[in-house]
Amino acid sequence: MHSSSRRHFLRTSGLAAGAMSVGLATAPAAVALDAIGTTRATEALAEPLMLARVWVDRTTSHLIGDFDDTHNVFDDGSVELLLWPGDLGRLVLTGLRHEITVNDLAARDAEILRNDTGRPVDLAPQPGETKNGQYRNLAIFNDEMKMLAEENPDICKLLELPMKSVQGRTIYGLEI
User: What's the pTM?
Assistant: First the structure.
């Protein structure tokens, strides 16, 4: 069995699809790409995106170098990986201790979007997010600056800057 990276997989799948779309599907190269790319794509797409917690140390951290990490490092030194279709088998082959924390990332995210808050209960609002998980827009930022200036007139002043944005909008600032 041919072992390849996601990049190779996507490249061959894309080339096969592109070759078939321009009518080259009978060409030998297109047939070969179709056999490699489409077959592997069909097999891999049956597996959802997952999150896994993996325990590594200095001597084993190189084993996860080809995986996508989420930059989430736990207190015990374990790391969180995003497992693309086909990655679970590769992770198992490393022999590393691991735990699947989210079996289907797309399904979990869809559920989050359906609930009232728009976010998991254990996830704090991220910078720039509102309490319901939406991101603030320019109007919200401008309203917040206006409110700060009105509530603190002795130390805060709303300024209208002399230049306009690229889109011709007024740019506001705060003098504190």
Answer: 0.45
